[in-house]
């Protein structure tokens, strides 16, 4: 924490008063400018902090989508499903745009080829 505070004090004097850092309109522009001017090497903790700030909305949205999917999938009827099956089902639900492109017949053939079965899958 001490190192971050130290970097922020120097950052305030160096970067905020630097001409090329004036008139930036977003945090992502600030990060890009830090990288282009190589000031990210001097202020590596500040750069990491900005990156965390920029990824926070994505992380929160992903978590909210996952809980929403779990709520839809894990109903009273399916409340006893194993954790692994629940996780697999949630992945398919969350990534449903990708899952729509999967050829089910190919999956069945792949599964069937893994070992000999008493009954045919098709």
TrEMBL record:
Signal peptide: none
InterPro entries attached to this UniProt entry: HATC_C_dom, RNaseH-like_sf
A GO term for molecular function: protein dimerization activity
Source organism (scientific name): Stephania yunnanensis
Name the record gives this protein: HAT C-terminal dimerisation domain-containing protein
Domain HAT C-terminal dimerisation: 19-92
């Amino acid at each position: 924490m001490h190192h971050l505070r130290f970097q922020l004090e120097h950052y305030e004097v160096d970067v905020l008063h630097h001409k090329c850092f004036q008139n930036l309109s977003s945090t992502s522009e600030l990060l890009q400018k830090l990288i282009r001017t190589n000031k990210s090497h001097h202020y590596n903790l500040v750069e990491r902090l900005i990156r965390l700030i920029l990824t926070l909305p994505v992380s929160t949205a992903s978590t909210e989508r996952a809980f929403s999917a779990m709520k839809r999938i894990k109903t009273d009827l399916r409340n006893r499903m194993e954790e692994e099956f629940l996780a697999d089902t949630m992945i398919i639900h969350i990534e449903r745009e990708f899952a729509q492109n999967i050829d089910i017949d190919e999956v069945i053939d792949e599964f069937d080829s893994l070992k000999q079965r008493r009954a045919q899958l098709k």
